[in-house]
Backbone:
């Protein structure tokens, strides 16, 4: 006769695995929409001039913070004894911040250049369309079609 021993840990492990998978599949799409170049909601995505200004300001802020962190790192390297036991933490934190602000600066400048080109391109297209509309001759003598004349009526 077989004795069935109920192990209460098996359903808990399976439930735990299932809940972790469910949590992962819920969080994954939530994080998928995150954009590295997140733009404030008040700026329209097709307003390239405003986007250029936004990304240039972002680059300026990153440049200021980059210089502050470089100054802090230089200060640490000149006199590490002033920082005590937390010196290595300060050094590694400043180095990580420098890398991050350099990346932000580079990306912001790239986005600003891209939107500047887009703004110039859109302005160029609108100017070309305006010029085409200006070149059209809308006088009445050109509106009458040669195929339809008063003789056939």
Residues:
């Amino acid at each position: 006769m077989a004795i069935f021993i109920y192990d209460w840990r098996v359903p808990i492990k399976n439930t735990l695995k299932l809940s972790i998978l469910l949590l992962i599949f819920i969080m994954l799409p939530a994080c998928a929409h995150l954009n590295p170049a997140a733009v404030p909601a008040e700026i329209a995505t097709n307003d390239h001039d405003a986007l250029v200004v936004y990304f240039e300001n972002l680059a300026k802020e990153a440049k200021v913070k980059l210089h502050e962190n470089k100054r802090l790192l230089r200060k640490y390297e000149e006199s590490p004894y002033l920082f005590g036991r937390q010196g290595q933490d300060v050094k590694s934190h400043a180095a990580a911040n420098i890398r991050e602000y350099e990346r932000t600066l580079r990306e912001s400048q790239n986005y600003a250049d891209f939107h500047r080109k887009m703004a110039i391109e859109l302005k160029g297209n609108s100017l070309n369309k305006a010029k085409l509309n200006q070149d059209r001759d809308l006088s009445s003598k050109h509106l009458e079609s040669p195929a339809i004349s008063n003789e056939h009526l």
Q: What stands out?
A: The CA atoms of residues 86 and 147 lie 90 Å apart. The mean pLDDT is 75.
